[in-house]
Amino acid sequence: MVRITRTPLLISVKLVRALLLAAGVILLAGYVASAEGTDITQLKADAQKGYSSQQIELAAAYFTGNGVTQDAKQAAYWYQKAAEAGDPEAENEIGFFYQAGIGVPVDHARALHWYQLASASGLIRAKVNLGVVYVWGLGVAKDEELAMQFFREAASKGEGAAASYLGDLYYFGIGVKQDKAAAETWYKTGTQLHDPVAAYNLATLFSVDVDHPHDLRKAEALLRPSADAGYIPAIHSLGLLMVNHPEFATSPQQGPSLLETAANAGYWKSSVVLGALARDGKGVPADSKAAYLHFRTAVLQGGEPAMSLVRYDLAALTKKLGTPQVEALDSDANTWYRQHRTPLLFVYKDGDRRQRFPASALAVSTAGLHAGQLLYVPAS
Q1: SUPFAM superfamilies from the entry (predicted)?
Q2: DSSP single-letter state for residue 24
Q3: How far apart, in whole angstroms, are the C-alpha atoms of residue 255 and residue 151?
Q4: Is the pLDDT of residue 6 over 60?
């Protein structure tokens, strides 16, 4: 049985600009609505005239490469233009760009400035980002108490992501005494506010947390809406649950299909599971070449943590397949990875805000717990 592992929202992350900018024209391809049919020339003209809505739309087009050559600097430029015109969503977005170093140098002071403006304009998501800033001391003195205040204020106004953050702070004991019961309460609050991350975190309590009673039916019921909202860890966990417990699947292909979705979004653990399924012929035809390709892809996605899990399998499959086939498969894996190298946290469906502010779909590499910073995740 392949195990589900806890992937908390409060994680170590390194906002690596090279990772974000090296994705090429395929960044978020398939996840953001196509700009086909959009009159880019007219859009640029309207943006130049100072229409903030068109500036935001043009920024999103540059960020995703939809209808124009992908250009993170141009994306940042047009988001900042809209922010300077007073659009709160754009203020929040350019703050995220400065925090992550997307198209602009990392500048925590500017990020804080834009978050504060957006928050003052009443944008609750910006208040969540301010909480993130103070949890980790990004350009300010670390102040976990103030961060908690921002999260509580945002949660009280219906922002489910803030409740999920509060849950993680209590779960891991950051700024407060560790209290998993309080964490569960906040995860429930976030779930009631339709936050997919809170629902996922609550599902992990019912499925993998060693200190919590397990109930796989409750876990499955929580994972489904989280996966439907596009949250990649939930898609992975739901697929894995269906593989291990076929009674939750409507067809034998449903679990592997979900794992494929997560793997294509950069989730290396899904690639490992897909390799194991192809190796063993579980739910899919036994296929040594497919198994090798999935394992090799997992290593490209996950580095040493992935290699530590698949090293034996790669060696055994290399011996079985022979050098010519392995070299061809390595080439295929490298080609695939070059086209899918930017990991995603969400696979977004159509929706106006998500099309206009696609950067919030990005995930970042994770290595070790709490060595980095808290990444903002938008509410559903």
Answers
A1: HCP-like
A2: G
A3: 35
A4: no
